[in-house]
Design brief:
Length: 169
């Protein structure tokens, strides 16, 4: 894991408003996320998780560790012809995933095209458009709890998804 200091975040933010992170690291795997969290704790740094950089506007530079999630992957867990279960890594671009789902004939996400950001952020505010919300097509997520560094699975009910709300806000 390579932690950089005084990193310009401007190109990582959709608003392109200038901001510096005092510490910055890019991660792809759960172990790297845990290592980054422990680094921040050991150095008494605040943590900010960054995905696609949309809905992120800095008023000042960030004095802490920005953890940029770059995990990639789309895997079909099950498909019985009536119900499809797909696991998508948090760092996947949301719109690109919607396009992939359409290419593969996986219905349900069409109305959620062109929403900026990454898949991992979609449950944070229960993204939605044109009468469809992520909670309508979502079963569960796994996340690393910052406090304990343990991987935890949250089912739909535990996420408490409501209009632009979730337990993660």
């Amino acid at each position: 894991m390579k932690v950089e200091t005084q990193v310009d975040l401007t190109s990582s933010l959709t608003f392109h408003v200038p901001a510096l992170a005092s510490h910055y690291v890019e991660v792809e795997k759960d172990d790297e996320i845990r290592e980054a969290i422990l680094y921040a704790k050991n150095n008494k740094l605040d943590i900010l998780i960054l995905g696609g950089g949309s809905n992120m506007l800095f008023h000042n530079d960030f004095e802490g560790l920005v953890i940029k999630i770059n995990s990639k992957g789309v895997d079909v867990l099950s498909d019985d012809g009536r119900r499809l279960e797909v696991v998508v890594e948090a760092g996947e671009d949301w719109h690109e995933f919607v396009l992939k789902s359409l290419t593969n004939g996986w219905g349900g996400l069409e109305n959620l095209a062109l929403i900026p950001g990454c898949v991992g952020a979609s449950p944070m505010q229960n993204i939605g458009a044109y009468g469809v919300e992520i909670k309508d097509v979502f079963s569960w997520l796994e996340a690393i709890e910052i406090k304990t560094c343990h991987l935890k699975r949250f089912n739909l009910k535990e996420c408490k998804l409501d209009y632009r709300e979730s337990v993660f806000k």
